[in-house]
Amino acid sequence: MQYVTGVKEKQDGSIAGLMAGSMRGEVSIKGAVHAIRDMADFMFIVLRRWDGLVQCVFESERMPSSKRHFLKEGMTLCVKGDIRKEERAPHGFEIVLTNIEILSSPAKDSTMPVPIGKWKLSTSLETRLSLRPITLRNIRERAIFKIQEGLIRGFRDFLYTEHFTEIHTPKIVAGNAEGGANVFKMEYFGKRAFLAQSPQFYKQMMVGVYDRVFETAPVFRAEKHNTTRHLNEYTSLDFEMGYIESFYDIMEMETAMLAYTFALLKKEYQEEIRILDITLPDVSKIPYVRFDEAKCLVSEKYGRVMRNPYDLEPEEEVLIGRYFKEECGSDFVFVTHYPSRKRPFYAMDDPDDTKFTLSFDLLFKGMEITTGGQRIHSYEEQVEKMKKRGMEISDFSNYLMIHKHGMPPHGGLGIGLERLTMRLLDEANVRETTLFPRDVTRLEP
After folding, report:
1. Which string of DSSP letters, residue by residue, matches 251-263?
2. Residues 236 and 417 sit within 8 Å (Cβ to Cβ)
3. Are 434 and 234 contacting, i.e. CB atoms less than 8 angstroms apart?
4. What sections of 277-313 are H helices per DSSP?
5. Cα distance between residue 389 and residue 300, in whole Å
6. What is this structure's pTM?
7. Nearest CA to 402 among 348, 440, 346, 364?
């Protein structure tokens, strides 16, 4: 009888393992041909692997010359050769080839549509998105999404240490959590259904079960605008926590999470930080300001006329970010106490002035990346607010069940992963930091 017993150690090692060795002797390694530089007497073959680039040298006296003519970008190889130090090569070493085994080849008539071996692709964003499965092979392009991986890792790992439970909520729903008409409608076995705009109702429900919960998952917004900051599908990093004393508890938790996450990036993602030339922001402390005060501050300092008293326009967000960078040296600022009329029905109103809510946005370099706040936990208060807004109470019976049978004071937030990545990398368009964007014009690839 034969059994599978787990992952066995392979001869093909990691770059770190090769670097930790003596840098002498024969080694074997696998990878895809990332670039070829033919220098007549010899040829450089750069292999792309999960852990970076490896430079190999094809020398005619060591290898049959006939083999070099069959090599092309996109091939996957298993190579053997002698490792030696070379400061000019990636990671400070190269492999002088003694044998090449071709594992797979691209189609005979194929030509790489973009020069993925270049340090930075000079093609347009539209071209990069249309050829996404190929352009992501570029070292800089794929570094973006390793950084994004680190952001998710930091979010998840930190919340585990704070006793949060990870949950997974439905994305096909019967109701609309956020209000408004910007939902994707669908037919569900003869019933009306929607793609979820937010896990809001479900994460509140689960606070009554686990006290503290979080989720990383896609959300969907059927918004028809086509801007550099909006998507129709994005990844939301959500958490909800019970037994809070105020919504400042949520802001403190996010601040600590960001500090943990950036420390993780600094430790575990040094190569990607180098490739992308990222300066990690200081989040040891984040200033906060009331919504109405923030509007006055930027109006007075920058001479901008306030047009919308109930919301922040993108230009105002930029100016608020600029103000707190200049005055406090911070790339982040919490804007608190948003007007009630611009917040969902579950947002708790400020008891001192019910025109405002106990809520906040977090701006990063002048762009909103987080929305959060305290929720209504009283059944009577929630029903009263819904009635004032003309909502049909019977449509929310499942949601109101948690209030009817007891909920602790609670609140939470949602972070737009792609926007957070965009601001961290100082990209101009959120599609740059979205693996396969979905917007009003793009459904493929």
Report:
1. HHHHHHHHHHHHH
2. yes
3. yes
4. 291-302
5. 34
6. 0.93
7. 346
